[in-house]
Amino acid sequence: MNHSIEVKNLHVSIDGQAILKGFNLTIPKGEVHALMGPNGTGKSTLAKVMAGHEDYIVESGEVLLDGVNILGQEPDEISHAGLFLAFQYPMEIPGVSIANFIRAAKQARLPEGEEINAIEYYKELYAKMDALKMDRKFTARSLNEGFSGGEKKRCEILQMAMLDPKYCVMDETDSGLDIDALRIVSEGVNLMRSEDRAFLVITHYQRLLDYIVPDVVHVMFDGRIVHSGDKELAKELESKGYDWVKEAFATASA
Amino acid sequence: MNTSLETSTKTLSAKEPSWLAERRSAGLDRFKNLAMPTARAEEWRFASVGKLSIDNFNPVVAPSSATLDALTERSNLVSDRAGLMVYVDDAPANFECIGPELAKQGVIYLPISEAVEQHPDLMEKYFLQESTELGSQKFFGLHAATVKAGAMLYVPKGVEIEKPFVNYYWTSGGRAAVFPHTLIIAEDNSKASVVDIFFSETKDNEALNISVSNIHAGANAHVFRKVVQDWNEKTVSFQLDTTVADRDAQVKNVAVNIGAERARFENQTRIKGAGADVKMYSLTVAEGTQEFDQRTYQTHKAPNAVSDLLYKNALLDNSRTIFSGLIKVAEGAQQTDAYQTNRNLLLDPSADANALPGLEILANDVRCSHGATTGNVDKEELFYMMQRGIPQRVAMQLMVFGFFEEVIEKIDSEELVENLRQLIHQKFSGKIS
After folding, report:
1. CA of B356 to nearest chain A CA: how many angstroms apart?
2. Where are the domains of chain B?
3. Nearest CA of chain B to the CA of A238: how many Å?
4. Which of A29, B98, B220, B317 counts the highest number of beta carbons within 10 A?
């Protein structure tokens, strides 16, 4: 078995309203899966539930990382288990610099009493910023505060690269990006593609998948995956529009 | 009425000059004649005055020389300095006087008592001449009657000193009442920096502090005062501070407030000369059942001047803060820029932050603003930080330091900033869970 991320029959609700209704997904290591679908269909909910957000109520089901169920764990524990969520809307944290923030995140992964090597840390940080074409002066700036959309998303990829996760969930990383920013962000992701890492790329638009070419494309509607295919499916979706999904699958899910 | 404190004042005035004896006796009268504050008084609104008592405190007993040495050893927050004074229970423990260079330029840095003897004219002009008018007049009276410990810094015209003068005021004995005093006189075109540090020897020696500091900034003088208050939580503290700013003077006050069971702050800024610029920054970490009661008053009596106040409070547990600020702009003080901001971060739902910002403007061409906000830790920010693997306790600390950064960044000494971070960190360790 080489199953990296497995979501099994996941039912999730918020404020008494069902959002995920028997969601199933398996992403083997080394693969990139895209999850597409109309707004309000549960894509972001899935991402937040996987990361341990406390607002959602898991009615039933499992999220397994290499066979270990992480549902019910605290967000920091899930992070330590190797899951990274690139946020659709990264938070602005006033007064906390990027350098100190990532450092705290790396420090939290070390055994008690062990201190991070500052010189090594900055060497790695600068190298990864250079690769993402980020100005080194950014390290002293407050996290995401006053950043443009593109800068925020690049900062997400920087964090992902620095924390070296095994399971990457990217929630609409392309939203609000122009083509240049999209290209840089995608290059950052492509550099991290490897045999022992699994990606779930959530997006509303096919455009992103020209840059991050997925192994599998899933179509989500009304709380579950209704159709899967190869990368050509994304193009079909783009040309037919999401109304096609609604028409084709509304009856099936009813 | 505290008779033992009163009696102790009588022995002081015997060998002092008559002007000082008169100020002491006026102070004592004020202390005796004014009533204890009540919750009905606007100046004490929201404060737990019912719990306020100064009856159980005693005149200080001289500490042992071992205690003086040990606390001198611990007076190590700022190593690069122009002078140092350490007091323990108002007794002198250590004094690093100024070097010959500064002495030659006419700089004076002396214990209050010696300054009275050696520079009576200067002291008559400035000592105990300014007090806050924010509700603690009674306590100022007791201070005036009793004060014997403190530092006097005089910087003559045109003399600029970069390194700070550092004054430590420790409490040590059982239920000691201390009355530290810092007097800063910066003449025209001079520059001076002072750090006042209030510490307790142990976690549980009870104490009462009634301290006064007065800054007199002459024309175009630059004064920077930093205050670190980290009393233990068995201390009742009053800090009654004033700034008088003459024409084009630039004064910056930064206060870091960590300790005390109940701490009352009165800070009065008097803009006397046109073009003066006074900044007042403060950060407070409140925990347990601590109460921090902050009253401020910015008065503009001359045009084209700036005063800017930013007080930030982070509250844990059942702690309380009260901020009450008033800006008053006199009729002729046109082109005034006066600002006042109070921001409170509640880390626990049971903490309680009160804010009473106020303006009184008689001039018609001014820019003034006042505002207060109180907010909780943002849950989504916390989720974001924890998603990166940062434990909740550390994430909240990072957020609090982030919240304080705006104030901390005003402090010009990296060593002091690092030491302050440690003090704040210690206060948090094991607290946020």
Report:
1. 25
2. 3-377
3. 31
4. B220
- The H or E element containing residue B311 is strand B306-315
The C-alpha of B291 sits at a distance from chain A's nearest C-alpha, in angstroms, of 26
B398: nearest CA in chain A?
A96
Length of chain B measured in residues: 433
For residue B346, what are the contacts with CB-CB under 8 A and spacing of at least 6?
B315, B353, B374, B375, B376, B377
For the four alpha carbons of B140, B145, B149 and B152, in that order, the dihedral sign comes to: positive
B214: helix, strand or coil? strand
What residues make up the domain containing A40? 3-253
Interface residue A61 vs chain B (CB under 8 A):
no
Number of residues written out for chain A: 254
Tell me which of B345, B381, B385, B387 to substitute to probe the interface with A (most A C-beta atoms closer than 10 Å). B387
**The pair of three-digit structure tokens given for residue A60, joined into one six-digit string:** 């039933």
Q: With an 8 Å Cβ cutoff, are B389 and A80 in contact?
A: yes
Q: Which residues of B touch A163 (CB under 8 A)?
A: 388-389
- Label residue B424 exposed, middle or buried (CB < 10 Å: 0-12, 13-18, 19+): buried
Give the helix/strand (H/E) hosting A104. Answer: helix A98-107
Given this model, what pLDDT does residue B62 score?
86
Vertex B303: Cα angle to B297 and B305 (nearest 5): 60
Contact between residue A178 and residue A13 where contact means Cβ atoms under 8 Å apart: no
Instruction: Name the closest residue on chain A to residue B406, using Cα atoms.
Output: A95
Chain B residues closer than 8 Å to A100 by CB: 398
State yes or no: pLDDT of A254 exceeds 50: no
CA B427 from chain center: how many Å? Answer: 20
pLDDT tens figures, B26-85: 999 999 999 999 988 999 999 988 777 777 787 788 899 999 999 999 999 999 999 999
Q: Which pLDDT band holds residue B5 (cuts at 50, 70, 90)? A: low
A52 touches chain B (CB under 8 A): yes
A100 contacts B398? CB cut-off 8 A: yes
CATH number of the domain within which A170 lies: 3.40.50.300
B389 with A108: Cβ contact below 8 A = yes
First to last CA, chain B: 43
To test the contact with chain B by mutation, choose from A54, A55, A56, A93 the residue with the greatest count of B C-beta atoms within 10 A, namely: A93
Q: Which of A49, A76, A168 to mutate to test the interface with B (most CBs of B within 10 A)?
A: A76
- ipTM score assigned to the predicted complex: 0.95
Residues of A in contact with B417 (CB under 8 A): none
B174: pLDDT confidence band, cut at 50, 70 and 90? confident
Number of separate domains in chain A: 1
DSSP B154-172: EE-TT-B--SPEEEEEEE-
- Residue B193, CB half-sphere, CA atoms under 13 Å: how many? 14
How many angstroms separate the CA atoms of B359 and B369, rounded? 8
Give chain B's mean pLDDT: 93
B393 at the A interface (CB within 8 A)?
no
Q: Kindly provide the residue ranges of all beta strands, DSSP E only, lying in chain A, ordered along the sequence.
A: 3-14, 17-28, 32-36, 57-65, 68-69, 83-86, 93-97, 142-143, 167-171, 198-203, 216-221, 224-229
